[in-house]
């Protein structure tokens, strides 16, 4: 499975590692993703998702149902 947040769509960013002599080599800046079990009150069950830490904070503010609706995800499949 690719490293993509299932709610926000965050993924890796192409970047450079810059040495002391300023030589640049390609690297990836990976998103901070965690496997989390989140309680889904409307479905009365736990849902296991791969989420970015930013998405976790947003779920606390908006709620899981609202976030899934914005992302176009059916939580019954998880």
Your description of this structure?
- It is a single chain.
- The protein is an alpha+beta fold.
- The chain has helices at residues 53-62, 64-71; strands at 13-18, 24-29, 33-40, 45-52.
- It has a two-stranded antiparallel sheet. A two-stranded antiparallel ribbon has the order 3-4.
- α1 crosses α2.
- The two termini are 15 Å apart.
- The model has no long low-confidence stretch (mean pLDDT 95).
Terminal residue distance: 15 Å
Percent strand: 35-45%
Helix content: 10-25%
DSSP summary: helix tally: 2
List the strand order in the largest sheet.
1-2
Shape: elongated
Q: What is the average per-residue confidence, as pLDDT, rounded to a whole number?
A: 95
Strand count: 4
- In this structure, how is the largest beta sheet organized? 2 strands, antiparallel
Summarize the entry for a quick read.
The chain contains 2 helices and 4 strands; from the N terminus they run ββββαα. It is of the alpha+beta class. Strands 1-2 form a two-stranded antiparallel sheet. The protein has a two-stranded antiparallel sheet with strand order 3-4.
């Amino acid at each position: 499975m690719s490293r993509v947040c299932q709610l926000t769509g965050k993924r890796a960013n192409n970047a450079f590692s810059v040495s002391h002599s300023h030589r640049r080599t390609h690297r990836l800046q990976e998103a901070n993703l965690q496997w989390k079990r989140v309680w889904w009150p409307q479905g009365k069950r736990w849902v296991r998702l791969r989420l970015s830490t930013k998405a976790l904070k947003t779920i606390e503010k908006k709620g899981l149902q609202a976030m899934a609706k914005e992302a176009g995800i059916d939580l019954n499949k998880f």
